[in-house]
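Help needed: design a sequence for this.
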């Protein structure tokens, strides 16, 4: 039996914060109590000095791993090294369960837009086989419906490895995330280092492919996802029509709705609304879309995602409790732990409670910025 006790801690439970201790046995939470460590456990106890102890964070949508694989335009890194660097950053940000969002965007006419899902899945599996991962990694496919072979490509991946979450995406210029063609061109030229001519090819291809493939591919991906037991997410919904389509498709998560109207309709339909933690901590969307803070104030924000900055997830929980008057810190923390766990069916984690996985992090504050002191995954310290 392995046992460890964290004591003298501010424990963030699902509904309240208490000063006390938590005992971990064989990778599970065995006991929670107020006050000091139980008698006889003092020698095994870690004095947290009044720091916060939270459930391990659960990240549903991060494309951060792709940045490690391609750290510069047209530069590819060793895939296993990229995965390990990503994993280290994820774990030290306090994330113990991560859904790595991998692009399935087959676009042979558009330079650098096809994604590297097979390569990264193979690297993740190799790292897992070597017991080299700190966090629990799961696969989230970001599927671009306005492409020619996305359904076949996604099906090939699902036949080889478990896929847990599928995003239905449409980045066609002039709608959803990109309200104008020029906004689309500017974004991808800056992000991918492509030329104006290459951007023009992408725009023309996307417009053509949207009319040819988007509707039938979305239907195909929905059927495929349901057949494989995947959770479905709809990406960048903006209009009532988008939300109605998501409801009909059996979508569970509305990722980054671009308007408050779409967020409200999704929330009212029981679809969990996920917004970016960078949006919250920066005070708004960097593309001018809906504000995460405004949605939280309206009672429409269910889940936060670090998206492209892993450290933002923990920061966003503390920020949310400071900036939204009706939310306590435990309620804010639910949006990065308990709620994301529930929506993807991970009932064994996401809160500090007896019998749950001992996925925990110890956090101090430097001013208003949370600092991760230690991270435990199934009772084993990983950061």
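Sure. Designed sequence:
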């Amino acid at each position: 039996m392995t046992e460890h006790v964290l004591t003298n801690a501010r424990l963030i439970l699902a509904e309240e914060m208490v000063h006390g201790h938590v005992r971990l046995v064989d990778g599970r939470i065995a006991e929670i109590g107020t006050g000091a460590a139980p008698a006889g456990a003092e020698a095994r106890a870690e004095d947290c000095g009044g720091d916060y102890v939270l459930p391990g964070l659960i990240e549903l949508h991060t494309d951060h791993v792709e940045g490690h694989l391609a750290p510069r335009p047209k530069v590819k890194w060793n895939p296993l090294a990229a995965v390990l660097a990503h994993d280290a950053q994820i774990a030290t940000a306090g994330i113990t369960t991560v859904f790595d969002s991998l692009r399935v965007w087959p676009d042979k006419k558009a330079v650098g837009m096809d994604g590297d899902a097979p390569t990264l899945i193979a690297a993740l599996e190799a790292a897992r086989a070597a017991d080299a991962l700190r966090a629990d990694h799961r696969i989230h496919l970001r599927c671009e419906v306005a492409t020619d072979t996305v359904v076949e490509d996604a099906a090939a991946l699902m036949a080889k490895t478990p896929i847990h979450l599928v995003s239905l995406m449409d980045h066609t210029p002039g709608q959803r995330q990109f309200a104008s063609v020029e906004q689309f061109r500017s974004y991808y030229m800056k992000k991918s280092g492509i030329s104006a001519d290459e951007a023009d090819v992408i725009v023309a291809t996307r417009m053509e492919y949207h009319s040819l493939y988007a509707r039938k591919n979305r239907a195909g991906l929905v059927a495929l996802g349901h057949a494989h037991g995947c959770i479905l997410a709809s990406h960048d919904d903006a209009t009532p029509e988008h939300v109605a389509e998501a409801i009909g498709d059996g979508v569970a998560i509305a990722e980054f709705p671009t308007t408050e109207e779409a967020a409200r309709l999704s929330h009212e339909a029981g679809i969990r609304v996920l917004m970016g933690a960078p949006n919250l901590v920066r005070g708004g969307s960097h593309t001018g879309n809906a504000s995460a803070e405004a949605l939280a104030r309206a009672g429409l924000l269910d889940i936060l995602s670090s998206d492209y900055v892993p450290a933002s997830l923990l920061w966003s929980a503390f920020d949310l409790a400071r900036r939204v008057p009706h939310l306590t810190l435990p309620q804010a923390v639910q949006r990065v732990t308990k709620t994301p766990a529930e929506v993807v069916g991970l009932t064994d984690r996401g809160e500090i409670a007896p019998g749950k996985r001992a996925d925990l992090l110890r956090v101090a504050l430097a001013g208003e910025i949370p600092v991760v002191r230690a991270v435990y995954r199934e009772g084993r310290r990983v950061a």
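The first helix runs from residue 64 to 69.
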